[in-house]
């Protein structure tokens, strides 16, 4: 008889991955010492703060280093004196098994990419060498609220074909004129967050965009200042979440909005939309949250809203609506919040 012997393998960090992380650290200033465990004597980088490795291979698969700040009472920006700062070196993405990267709310001042395979430095503003930027496994990328970063070219992101979640909220994109084509070719992208990015071109006349997998699109606080772009409602996917609030969008709601058959969340608040609220909005049967407040809509509340059986929140505050509340709104058994203040309703 053979006796069974069990053993536990202590898989340690891959040396190549460790060197990539150390190079990333060298570019940074770390005022609060959150990377104090990142040093060569502590040779297992899988135990470093913010690093998560695959239990079997020892390869780095996640890097989670957001900065936690307390909102400032006196200034528009949070105090980031404790956050990572310096140049963000995208050679970090040479971690070939990295799937999750979160550097949210730090204080990075710029981005550059060094690729040892190409043996050259490339600034992502304005012309990185796209052939040197090839990533295959990253699915989650969050660089949001690093407010000092200005990105003039997003072509490097186009090569991350596995990307499912992208959050660039608060990143300045005003120099990037081709942001939409660069992102629309990402075949796996499910969530796209570009709040407060100030892109110069919103492509108001573009008819179609081939977002094949997109479900969540957030473009609030970008000062769009045009009519609703047509492409938003001709997306080649069943999008469920759209936020276009605080954008100075004007004009009437076009009929093409009714194409959003799967929409659950629609926020068009704090714009300059006018005219009557169209009756066909009541055909969007999956709607759970509808925000139309702080516009200049006129006329009555459409009685078809009583057909929105999934509706949980309806905000029509601060418009120029008149007439009376449709009686069939009382049939909406899921409705938790109804806002109709600052109108001329009877």
Describe the protein's architecture and organization.
Residues 205-341 form the Disease resistance R13L4/SHOC-2-like LRR domain. Residues 15-54 form the Leucine-rich repeat-containing N-terminal plant-type domain. It is a single-pass type I membrane protein. Its main location: membrane. The chain has 346 residues and is mostly beta strands. The protein has one domain (29-345): Ribonuclease Inhibitor (Leucine-rich repeat, LRR (right-handed beta-alpha superhelix)). The chain contains 3 helices and 21 strands. The chain has helices at residues 15-26, 155-158, 179-184, and strands spanning 28-29, 51-53, 60-64, 85-89, 100-102, 107-115, 120-123, 140-142, 165-167, 191-193, 216-218, 241-243, 250-251, 265-267, 272-276, 289-291, 296-299, 313-315, 320-323, 337-339, 344-345. The chain has a 12-stranded mixed beta sheet, with no helix packed on it. Strands 13-15-17-19-21 form a 5-stranded parallel beta sheet, with no helix packed on it. The protein has a 4-stranded mixed beta sheet with strand order 1-4-6-7. The chain is elongated, with a radius of gyration of 24 Å. It starts with 14 loop residues before the first helix and ends with a strand. The relative contact order is 0.07. The model is unreliable at 1-8, 116-123 and 125-133 (pLDDT under 50).
